Amino acid sequence: MTDTPTTADVSEPTRLKRTFFQTLEIDTRLLGMIGAFLLITLVFNVLTEGRFLTPRNIFNLTIQTVSVAIMATGMVFVIVTRHIDLSVGAVLAVTSATMAMTQTVVMPQWFGIEFGSPLIAPVAVLVGVLTGLAIGALQGWLVGYLTIPAFIVTLGGFLVWRNAGWYLTKGQTIGPLDENFQAFGGINGTLGTTWSWVFGVIAVAFVIWAMFRSRHSKIAHGFPVKPIWAEALLGLIAAGAILGFVAVLNAYEVPRPRLERMFAARGEVMPEGYTAGYGLPISVFVLILIAVIMTVLAKRTRLGRYIFATGGNPEAAALAGINIRFLTVKVFMIMGVLAAISAVVASSRQTFHSNDIGTLDELRVIAAAVIGGTALSGGIGTIHGAILGALIMQSLQSGMAMVGVDAPFQNIVVGFVLVIAVLIDTIYRKRTGA
Amino acid sequence: MTMTDTIDRSGAPLCELRDMQKAFGGIRAVDHVSIDVYPGEVVGVLGHNGAGKSVLMKMLSGAYMRDGGQIFVNGEEAEINNPRDARRYNIETIYQTLALADNLDAASNLFLGRELVNSLGMVDDPHMESETRKIMSRLNPNFRRYSTPVAGLSGGQRQSVAIARAVYFNAKILIMDEPTAALGVEETRMVAELVQELKRQGIGIFLIDHDIHQVKTLCDRASVMKNGRLVGTVRVDEVTEDDLLSMIILGKNPKDIAA
Description:
Chain A has helices at residues 7-14, 20-24, 28-47, 55-80, 88-110, 120-144, 150-169, 179-182, 192-220, 228-251, 256-265, 282-300, 302-312, 314-319, 324-350, 361-371, 383-403, 407-432.
């Protein structure tokens, strides 16, 4: 069929006037979020007289963000398919409770596996993940097959799961948790400087390989590609960001008394002038791994394509032969597993399980996804956006705490930021017609 | 303009719907209806809104489960219970709503549910876009907007994506639900040309249409429905537009009128 060419049709192929950012093909929305994040960090750095951007604070900021960020990646899928999950904080609590009970009661008392056995951490994590998977499957089935609104199912779950955890632990705080398990908590488990550099180099190699592959594939199909200088610039920025991040985390030195204790525990004496950096926390490594997996799932698999298609037009997806009911179950299962992994990070970070763990996390997670550009109307959202959203929220919160803003005002500001972020996003979408 | 009917109806129909039934609650949306189409034939499916045309076609495309009746493809009974089944029999549908996911680009929509994957099982977007460019250059040479969500496309562009989806996957039986309802004059003419081309390729087409004049030009036979029942099937070169209208409005078969 012939179309009368509209202005948009003409302007796209001609591409005479291209801005710098268009040439780089960077999403302006992502750029805006990164800009907002940098602005926030710089303002707090000035207000705290340089204390905000110290290696120590950046280290703490990242490990505080991990738990919410992991769940936010799953919430993107949930919201993209036009659902919501109000139960993630409660699922985090109940999976944390099952893992705590597994390592302190079930394994030592029922199976006689001594506390401290290397078996404890992996079995506990497995039990937690399976619990999260089962809860997700149940909730997904209620939503997908019995067509109860997700809002109601997960509101019920919000009440059920936390209190199921409470019942399991009889309301007690369970701890300390297994030492290997605690390695996922942040400060108690880091890669150290050498392995952090190894990670950084591998990550840079991976990014460059992915860019090369994408370019190669475009050329093979005869599509236009970015100029080489643009590719090189993007590669340099990515490599600089990764290695800079590693350098900052490596610069955070383990305090002297702690080092001395570590040497003493091994029956050695610490050499004079010995220092060691923390490096990349294992929890952050887990987040990066999940971010990569979830991004690949979203962009490069049929499951991801169907998730977005269903969010965009459920009827069209069904007519294309997509099993939307089962898709809903899968999306909630992913969310359940991610809540369980967050529970590993959150409980090991505080070194014990408590009943109030993950309280209000459902709201933080939804806010992170939404600030990160996920549309509640469905069909739109990105994994990296949600993680950035979590980072922005955590920066605001801990920045205000460092500046000495009163607690009520901290939450008031975060509330304003949430609403304003969505407002800006709505205006942006109207303007660009996306 | 009336075409002479040159369709060979000596063999088995390409597709036959026999004694189809579907009820919603107490309402019989499709009540023991039988229609068929032969290779290279266009059969108009006519009737008022609510006559049951779309429901009948949706049972063939697998969107609805039928309550009763049989579907035959090339003389053999076909088991069609969902859209995937229908696609296996090379039955493609162009829905009136177009059934596009507005947030995805043209290629993702064209291959929705049938994505091309690479050796790692990953969705191969460049490959799909290159295939989409090939088919679109045939159907809509002015189409340029491959990398934007289809929400931003014009009505004609969206229609061409929906048609490309049916044509690309080698439909043998094509269901077109009011393909020109939202189109301008020029675009309508292009759809008519496409129907002629598909006819020449031996594809059987069920065409739901409200435009009687268009039915007279495009269709070989017309099956008219009213209140869920089949009024009758006629060869369009043997009836006038008025005959078709009286079938649709009054539910009268011209043979009955003549008799």
